[in-house]
Amino acid sequence: MRAAVARAAALSAQLAQRFFAAGNLPQLALATENAASSQAQIDAQRASAAAGAARSTLAGLLGVRSRDDWRLLERLVLPNYAAGHCPAGRWPAR
Hints:
Elements: H1 2-21, H2 27-62
């Protein structure tokens, strides 16, 4: 999501540059657009780094290598309590 925001902010800054070159935008507004674009890029990089760190932590907990191409299911399957597939005393019976 942050990457999409960063792309939009970069495009907005490019448009602001064109407006400034045409004389339709003051220098302060151009500087504000450029600053917003830069901040969005920083936020996107931080989010990407945080996602990589979280993936690495999860991979370690799962016992797989983080650089391998593994994915989790969108929705995990619930254990079948009725068939007795949960360890005794671990989860309450439904």
